[in-house]
Write a structure and sequence with these properties.
Elements: E1 2-5, E2 8-11, H1 12-73, H2 79-85, E3 92-93, E4 99-100, H3 102-112, H4 124-127, H5 151-164
Antiparallel strand pairs: 1-2, 3-4
Helix pairs in contact: 1-2
């Protein structure tokens, strides 16, 4: 059977072959699309795992820094040892970045392992050893001799002078 479309004669076999070729192309595109979707899902999973790992590591570092700082304030002999030896189950970092449970964990460690701590660090005012001095006065302006200054110094001073004007 022959088809006559617009003056062009096309056989049924040619149409069937064109249809099969188009269907094969659609199947190939669907396969590629499925591969792309699976790769995208794999990349999303990898990204989420990496993001979770980075958040966990950063939370651990922030909690450790907060514990060290508080241990120093509480008079720890070696804050790193204190951080390694205390129970961290009650210490966590909130979504807003605040670290919760630091004081409680270190108070508990101070009670249980007093040998890790000395006296609490107190400011000099509390001890009565601080002598109040007046605020330091600024020194006079430094003399500048443009005749002996390097070109770079001269240019810098010139632009400082012009900026004040």
């Amino acid at each position: 059977m022959m088809s006559n479309s617009g003056g062009k004669v096309v056989s049924d076999d040619a149409l069937r072959q064109a249809l099969e070729a188009a269907q094969n192309e659609v199947k190939a595109m669907r396969g590629e699309m499925a591969d792309m979707i699976s790769r995208q899902d794999a990349l999303k999973r990898t990204h989420e795992e990496a993001l979770t790992r980075v958040k966990t590591e950063s939370n651990r570092e922030v909690v450790t820094a907060a514990l060290r700082a508080e241990a120093v304030r509480m008079g720890a002999h070696n804050p790193d040892d204190v951080v390694r030896l205390i129970d961290l189950s009650g210490v966590r970092r909130e979504e807003d970045g605040a670290v919760i449970g630091v004081a409680e964990a270190l108070d508990h460690a101070r009670r249980d392992r007093a040998y890790l701590f000395g006296e609490r660090a107190r400011p000099g005012v509390a001890l009565g050893t601080t002598v109040a001095h007046g605020a330091p006065r600024p020194g006079g302006a430094e003399h500048f001799d443009a005749r002996v200054a390097s070109h770079a110094d001269y240019e810098a001073r010139k632009w400082q002078f012009l900026a004040r004007s």
